[in-house]
Design the sequence.
């Protein structure tokens, strides 16, 4: 089984990528747990919103202990599938969350959740498109435009890209500076009109509306301005660095933005 990325990563790598299969980590889930999860997945299709949210949290926690990846195939009320590149991810909240902005900037800064919430918020509604084909239509995200944080940091003239790191300790992503300054790229604090949950990459995640969802890094903790683009976790394993929906990764999906 290929390594799996956080939840929306979008399932195993395409066969034609030819990347080697790393060893799966974590203890396999038991037969009873899997059968029970299958039943919950089917129920989630018609469940009330409260039960759907509970199901999403359950699938997110179980998938981290399931190297078979079978839990990622289960339906749930939110329409997303759950994957992880690490066996577990620490939780962060108002007391200990920090987002750093550094690199080729004149004014490095560290933001708390309260700091980010105090900045002007932008709400976007677009389809979420996974590179493996599934789509969640008209998904609201809300947060601070990445361009706002970059402007406050004072990006130097030598800069050409932005690198993102995550507090799962493994995942990274990148954008060109022009891409990062787009009005439809957010440091998101809300998803589906609720605070971004831990399972969905909260409390803060990246949201890149016009690109496949593997670019929208979860558990965002660092924004580093660099001279050149540095391929992220999945780009190092064969995915396109420029991940425009319908114009990359050999797919022709309808644009999301």
Sequence:
């Amino acid at each position: 089984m290929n390594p799996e990325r956080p939840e929306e990563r979008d399932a195993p790598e395409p066969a034609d990528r030819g990347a080697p299969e790393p060893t799966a980590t974590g203890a396999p889930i038991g037969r009873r747990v899997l059968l029970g999860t299958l039943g919950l997945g089917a129920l989630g299709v018609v469940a009330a919103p409260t039960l759907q949210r509970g199901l999403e949290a359950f699938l997110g926690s179980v998938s981290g202990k399931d190297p078979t990846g079978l839990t990622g195939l289960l339906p749930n009320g939110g329409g997303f599938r759950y994957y992880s590149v690490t066996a577990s991810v620490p939780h962060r909240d108002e007391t200990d969350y920090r987002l750093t902005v550094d690199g080729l900037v004149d004014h490095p800064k560290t933001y708390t959740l309260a700091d980010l919430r105090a900045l002007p918020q932008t709400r976007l509604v677009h389809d979420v498109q996974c590179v493996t084909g599934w789509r969640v239509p008209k998904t609201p995200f809300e947060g601070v435009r990445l361009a706002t944080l970059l402007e406050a940091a004072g990006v130097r003239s030598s800069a050409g890209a932005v690198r993102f790191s995550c507090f799962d300790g493994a995942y990274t992503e990148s954008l060109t500076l022009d891409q990062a300054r787009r009005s439809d790229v957010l440091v998101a604090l809300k998803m589906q009109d609720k605070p971004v949950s831990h399972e969905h990459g909260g409390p803060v995640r990246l949201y890149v509306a016009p690109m496949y969802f593997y670019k929208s890094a979860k558990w965002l903790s660092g924004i580093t301005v660099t001279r050149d683009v540095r391929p992220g976790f999945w780009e190092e394993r064969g995915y396109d660095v420029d991940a425009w929906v319908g114009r990359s990764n050999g797919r022709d999906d309808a644009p999301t933005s």
Summary: Residues 41 and 75 are 5 Å apart (CA to CA).
